[in-house]
C-alpha cells in the first residue's frame, strides 16, 4: 500500500513527496522527492494549511468596504 500526497515544495515547486512508511503519521518528516527539501512534519504542514484556508475563508476588509 502506498500513500500519495501532493504538496507543493516551496523550493522547487515539485509535488512528489517521500515517505519512509506506507502510512503517514503526524510525526513523519515530509521531504521533497525531487530536491530533498524538508517541509516539516505532517502535523505542522496541516496546521499551516488550515491557517491559510481560514484566511481565504474570511472576507477581506477591502471586500467589506465595497
Q: Secondary-structure map with pairings?
A:
Elements: E1 17-18, E2 29-32, E3 38-41, H1 42-57, H2 61-65
Antiparallel strand pairs: 1-2, 2-3
Number of helical elements? 2
* Low-confidence sequence ranges: none
- What is the typical, i.e. mean, pLDDT? 79
Principal-axis shape equals: globular
Write the H/E string, N to C: EEEHH
Neighbour order of strands in the largest sheet: 1-2-3
How large is the radius of gyration?
Answer: 15 Å
State the distance separating the first and last CA atoms: 51 Å
Structural class: alpha+beta
What is the count of β-strands? 3
Largest beta-sheet details: 3 strands, antiparallel
- Taken as a percent bin, the fraction of beta residues is 15-25%
How would you describe the overall organization of this protein?
The protein is α+β, with helices and mostly antiparallel strands. The protein contains two helices and three strands. Strand 2 and strand 3 form a beta hairpin. It is globular and about 40 Å long.
Describe the structure concisely for a colleague.
It is built from two helices and three strands; from the N terminus they run E-E-E-H-H. It has 66 residues and is α+β, with helices and mostly antiparallel strands.
